[in-house]
Amino acid sequence: MKLTNFRDLGGLVAANGQKVRTKKILRSGELVQLDETTKTQLATDYDVTLVIDFRRDFEIQERPDDQIPGVQFVNIDILKSAQNNASLEDFITIGASDKVDQHMLNIYHDLVMDPNAQTGYAQFLDLVLNNQTGATLFHCFAGKDRTGFGAALILALLNVSEEQIMQDYLKTNQDRKQANDQIIDYYRQQGAKPEALEALAIALYVKKEYLQNSFHLIKSNYQDVFHYAQTQLNFGPEKVQKLQKQFLE
Question: CA distances (Å), 146 to each of 40, 121, 230, 234, in order?
Answer without folding.
Answer: 26, 10, 20, 19
